[in-house]
Every structure is written in structure tokens, then in C-alpha cells.
Fold each of these.
Amino acid sequence: MMTALTVFLFTYFLNITLITVLYHRGLAHGAVKLTRFGRFLAKDVAVWLTGIDPKGWVCMHRLHHNHSDSALDPHSPVNSSIVGVFFDQHRSFSRVLSGLIRKKKEFTEVVSDIDFDVHWLNANKLWWLPLALHSVIGVVLGMTTSNYLLGFGYVAGMSSHPVQGWLVNSFGHAKGYQNFDLGDHSRNNTLVAWAVVGEGYQNNHHKYPASAKFSVKWYEVDVGYFLVHVLDLVGVVEYNPKLKPASLETN
Ligand SMILES: [Zn+2]
Ligand SMILES: [Zn+2]
């Protein structure tokens, strides 16, 4: 049981670390700079681990920022419901990916600064391959150790991003407190922030999207910001907290 839980937690945090530091704070907002190695991880490796296309993720996420909680938001509980966001984010991601593959301007112009294409897995309709591989690895792990819970923990952790994303996209725009009145429904949800390494501080993040740090109050804990420092130490990203984006200076 403990081994299975450890494996689940490791794969769960591996997934969200790749997404929150490389895809989100790095590629989508430029709050941290990716090193050559970090770029290689984001562009070529992370899709195999998370199942999520980096360019597609960045495009859908920027559309969310551009249209937060309006009718054009790709995933907002205002347009459907807490549960509905789970399906909306999946539908929107498919639409964004196919729009990028077909070079539709409404999508390509949102990620014109991302100098690589949709990963060949998605361009060739092989989006299911990483999940299939992780399922096989999970079964092999379960059989070789006679611990099927361990195999399940591995597969659950490796395929956890849609649930992590759903927690953030739904509760982070429906339940919680606001530090800033931004005219949208973004919220700071403490439980989601703890479970999804700071991503639950949606209200703070919509106020300061270019900041690598999603917490603003002393009692808010952004583990993702700690992970930025860890990945800086090991040469995956470069982060200099003194070089704050201009948008942070006035507040
Ligand atoms: Zn948001
Ligand atoms: Zn963002």
C-alpha cells in the first residue's frame, strides 16, 4: 500500500511539475526561461510523460486568459458547471489541437512566439500512445511485483493531468476568495492550490500572469514556485526573481 502510494505521489508530482513550471510558467507566460535542456524536456519529452501536447496546452491556456469566464473561454464553470468543465476542457483541447494542425489563424496567432509545431504524436492522431504505453508499464509493474495497486498508482499518477486541470479550471473559477476584483470569476482556492502546487491561486494568477509566483499573501503556499527554484538549481530553467516583469512593479 505504501509503495503504491509513493509511486502515485511521485508520478502525480512529476506530471504537475512538468506542466506548471515548463508549460505554464515557462512557455505560456515567460515567467521563467527554459534552458536548452528544459526546452528539450518541454518540446520532446513531456508529452510522453503527461500525454499533453505543449503547444496545444499553451494555446488553450492563453485563450483562457484572453477570454476569462466569457463565452469564448475554453473552460469556465460560468458557461457550464463544475462537472461540465471536465468535458469542456477536453473538447476545447481537441478543437485547439486540430486548429493548430490545420494552421487556422485564430489559433496559430495565439502561439506565434512558440517556435515548434504540435508534437508529431498529435499531428499523426497518436495522442493515445503515451497513455497506452503507461498502461502497459502499469500492468508489467503490477505483474512483476504482484502488487497491482502499485501498477494502478503508476497509471493514475501518470495520467493525472486532466483531473489536476479540471480542479484548477473549475474550482479555481467558482469557489474560493478573491484578492483582486478583475471582472472575471477567478478565485483563490486553498485546497486546490495545495493539491495542484499553487495553480489553485487563479485570482492571483489572473492579476499577475507574468509572475512565476502565484501566491501574494503570507499565508498562501505556492509549491510550484518552490519547484521553479529546484528546476533552476538543476539547470532546467533559469529564474531570476530580481528581474520582475514590468507588470508587477506598480502593485
Ligand atoms: Zn484561470
Ligand atoms: Zn496562466
Amino acid sequence: MKFDTATVVSYSPTGTTTRVLKGIVEGMKSNLSLVDVTSPKVRKTAVLPEGDVLLVGMPVYSGRIAKEGRALLEKLRGDGRPAVAVVVYGNRHYDDALLELGDILREKGFKVIAGAAFIGEHSFADEKYPTAIGRPDGYDLPVIRSFGAKVAKMLGAADSVSELPEVDLPGNRPYKVPSTMPEGSPVTDVETCVHCGKCAAVCPVGAVDPKDPNATDGVACTFCCACVKACPTGARVLRLEPVASLGKKMWDNFSSRREPEFFMPTPSKK
Ligand SMILES: Cc1cc2nc3c(=O)[nH]c(=O)nc-3n(C[C@H](O)[C@H](O)[C@H](O)COP(=O)(O)O)c2cc1C
């Protein structure tokens, strides 16, 4: 199958999912058409892509795909096109997220030909509790590209979509019930805040008031920590319990390095 451009849909509040997807497309040696649906404005207006092959990447929140991304996927229409499901998680586990993403893509009419779970810096990681900090890193990137190369090889070897086998993805149905998060959000230390507006600009749900970061909508906030990571002075901090202790909990229990996993169909004998 000939394909010039890999179309990528990514929801990625702290950027690791988008980095992984870009690495996959590099490995495919294909042109990249990226629809980054992290910003709420883009999600409202995004024209979802046509194209020969679609890659969709979502971060794992509580063992499921992040719900803002899930809502967006409802807009997709596959019309039998091949798709690749990618989840990025913070070194604990991805539980049912990859299966869920694959199921949604199938429901939307795609043929899911491959899947992968990669590790990204944990949203709650900091210098003290650095779970998966810096990932994807120099060890991950060649692995990420090699997944892209395998996908490209599989597509190149088929004469048409009908020849491409579908992949089985790991996970359980019914999917894991995600833990409920409390109402609230990170807060801003007024002494160190320089009013640069970065916290408001990166918030994927538009919860932060650009004029007064402390006026954050605690119902809308997903604790993605994009604002905490983007703050140039460290003024934006997560203090609300029990969320604030999750960084330590992750580090205490899930600091042993996990490695990426690929799922490709077993090639059928012609
Ligand atoms: C609310 C929330 C829940 C999360 N749940 C999980 C999880 O169940 N397993 C895991 O390993 N990482 C979990 N993470 C970490 C993210 O999956 C990880 O940091 C990912 O790289 C974030 O992707 P992004 O940089 O594209 O936003 C969670 C993060 C947040 C904010």
C-alpha cells in the first residue's frame, strides 16, 4: 500500500504523547500531518483528518484513555482505513487504555492494524519523586522509531487495506473504572507568579483564568499538571490531597523502569 503522509491525532497536555507520535512517524519515514487536539479551542473546531493511515495517541489516566481525548474520537470516521492505536503512560501501567482506544477506533470504522504502549514522564513527577522523568528518553526513541518502521513495513507489504490483518490488543472488558478525582486544581503562589499566562495557555480544558491563575475552575481541572510543568518560576503547585501525594506514591511503588510494548498482528501465510 502506498502512503505518503501519516495523519496523527494527539491529545497531550504535558507533551509526551505528541513526542512519541512524532518519533513513530519519523520511523515510518513518512510525512507528518499532526492534529494536536490538546487545546480546547482546537477540540471545538478541529477538522478531523482524511489521509491513508491514521495514528491516534492518548495519555493514560487511571488506566483508561484521558476522557477529553475520548470525546474527540467520537468525531472520527474511519471508512475502512487503517489505524494505529498508541497510549502513553507514566510507568505504572496502561491497564485497559490500549484496548479501549482500539475498540473506539474499530467502532468508528477503522481497521486497527497495530498498537503500542510507551512510557512518558509521569504528570505528577518532580525532582523529588522523578517517576519516568525525561521519558521518552534516548533509550526509548530508537524503540519508538522501530515501531514506526514496523508499521510502515506492514503497510508497504500489503497491496490493499483488505490484505492487512487486524491486531488484538491487551486489556479487559468491562474496562477498569477510573478513580474519582476530588474537585480542585493546582494553586498559584502569588509571591512568585510573574503573570506570564503560560498556565492558562497550556490548560487543555480552559480552567485557568489568564488574569488570575488562582481563579481556576476546580470542576473542569483534570489534574493533568500541564500548568505546573509549564510554570517558569515554580509558582504553580499541586497541594490538594490526596492528589498531591500521588507523586510520592508513584515513586515509592512504580519507579522500576518499564519498557515499551508493541502489538502487531501475526502475519498470515499467503
Ligand atoms: C489524572 C492522571 C491519571 C494518570 N493515570 C495514570 C495511570 O493510570 N497509569 C500510569 O502509568 N500513568 C498515569 N498517569 C500519567 C500519564 O499517563 C503520563 O504522565 C503521560 O505521559 C502524560 O501524557 P502527556 O504528556 O501526553 O500529557 C496519569 C496522569 C494523570 C494526570
Amino acid sequence: MSTIPTEREGINGLDRATLCALPTPLVEAKRLAESLGRTRLFIKRDDLTGLALGGNKPRACEFVMGQAKASGHDVVIAVGPQHSNQLCAIAAAAKKCGMPAILLLLRGDDRVRGNLLLFRILGAEVRFTHVDPANIEEAYDQMEALADHLQKEGARPYKLRYGPLPLVGTAGYVMLMSEMLEQLSLQQSGGAPTGTRHIFVGSGSGLTQAGLILGDKVLGGGCWIHGVMLDGQVEQEEHERNVLKAVETAAALFGHDLSIGADDIRCLPGYGADDAAAETKATEAMKLAARSEGLLLDPVYTAKVMAAMIDQIRAGLIPPQDTVVFYHSGGIPAIFSHCKAEAF
Ligand SMILES: Cc1ncc(COP(=O)(O)O)c(C=O)c1O
């Protein structure tokens, strides 16, 4: 079993910017556990990572921006949707690193609230491309043209496409696993059950899940990482293949020689659908978390992950002696752009 250093320098000498306030708490959720008929259930509070309104993305941004800074870039340009948590983290990370951020937004809901409001508060330069998400290549052409222009003026732009962050960001999630395993072992020395540890995590690009799987393998944690699929358009098999590829590529990048197979990848489909049934489940999960633990979830990501976890528990798929961890990946701004008040 190899080890992952926990010092701020990061892993394998990778450059790392200090953006987060770590470790985030791992808290026991007794009232939520009781309402689900379990003995012990934990919440990893990465909504409290400490950059802007927190979330999982700042952990990856520490390594992405570390690399950008080390290679001499001095301005960040990123393409994405109007209400992207990732763009918010990128804008906040750029500012904390002393760089301007230019966001090229795809066509969408352009009411200034939620993340779109945060982009403004953060002082990012927001440009509305009016490009439909289906024609995203046009937005990339605009990004290239802007980067050429800035380069001619002497700047060194760092370009970020929509979708997975650069793979180096996965290092942030490998370190998250190291942090969480240490916290869990402290809890378990206090008498928690010793069964399998199940971690429920949202899986959009799949990088968070990939980093957790890799970290678990490297450290011999023996956890089951359940990736709740957040994009209703993607097939389960295809997504699982993508996550496996990300784990393998990140392992090679970070210098780990591991045997990882399809059996290590567990993805739960059906929660990312854009339909009334998925919305109802997510709303119920938001209510349960808020009313049992005072815990706020967002309707787009974390509520769906909680809904999947609840279903797995209620269906009896997690043995009673096993430990359950809900990974809270943030997304809080969406409460203020996507929630329908009448649902609560
Ligand atoms: C709040 C939140 N949770 C989870 C995810 C999924 O993370 P990943 O893209 O690493 O799978 C995202 C991605 O945008 C997110 O914003």
C-alpha cells in the first residue's frame, strides 16, 4: 500500500495553489440516520471548501490553477453554461491567484441570479456568446480568437473548455479520499460499525468519482464509491467506461501502477433525468436533509445524490453494519436560481 502525502505541496511534486480551507468536516448525521433506520451515517461537508460558496470544484482548481500559474499563464478564459458551479470556482480561483477571468457563456437562462450573479460579484468579465450549447464548437472558436488577440497583446491566456477540468485536477479528489479515510478511521476507533464503507458522490464529468476511486485504491481503503449519474443523457455503460479511463489515466499521470477494472466502477443511473419523477425525489431529499439536519442541498446535483442514497438504503441494499457517507459537493448557488418555492 502506498501513501499520499497530506501536506499542502500536493502529490508527486504537482504544483498546487492554496485555494481551499482544508480539511472540511466529516460530521455524523444522527437524525437523518435515524429517519432512514440506520445506526451511523456521515456527511463529508465539501460545501465548506472555503472558496466562494465552496463545493468539490475548488479542490480540483487548486491543481489546475497551480499548473496554470507555474507555466506562466496570467489570464483565464473559460467556456460554459450560465449557471455553472465549475465556472464560479474557476472565476474565484483565478481571482485568488491574482488573474483576470473571462467567461464565455453559452445561451441559457440569463437572469442575473445564482452563479451568474456570483460571476459579477467576483469581477469576472462575462461575455454572452449567444451560442446554443448544441453548437459549443462555435464558442470554442470564439475562445481561440480571443486567446490569439490577448496573446498578441502580450498576455498568456489559459483556456478551459466546458466539461471535465484538466485531469491534473483529479489530484484534488485523490487527496480528498486521503482526508476522508483519515477522518473515518478516527470515527471508527470511536466504536462505529466495521462493515464496508459506502460513499455516495455525484458523477457529472466523473472526475470527483475517479479521484476518490484512485485514492481509495492507492490507500487500500476498501470503500465502495457509488457515483450517482447526474447527466440523464449519458448511458450507464458509456459513463462507467469514461470514469474507468479517467482513473487509469490519472493513475499513470500521478505515477501509480495499479490494477483497476470495470468492477471498481459503480454508477447509479436514473437520477439525472430532467423529468418530474426525478425532480420530486430530489425535492423530497432536500426537505429531509434540511428538516432533519439543517443541511442545505442544491436541486441540480446534491439533492439527486441524496435521493439515490435514500433509495439504496430503503431498498435494503446497504447492510446495516456498513458505514454510509454522503459527499456534499456544494452547488448552493443553484438554490437561488433553480428552486421552485412552491415545492417546499
Ligand atoms: C455541485 C456539484 N456536484 C457534483 C458535480 C459533479 O462533479 P464531477 O464533474 O467531478 O463529476 C458538479 C459538477 O459540476 C457540481 O457542480
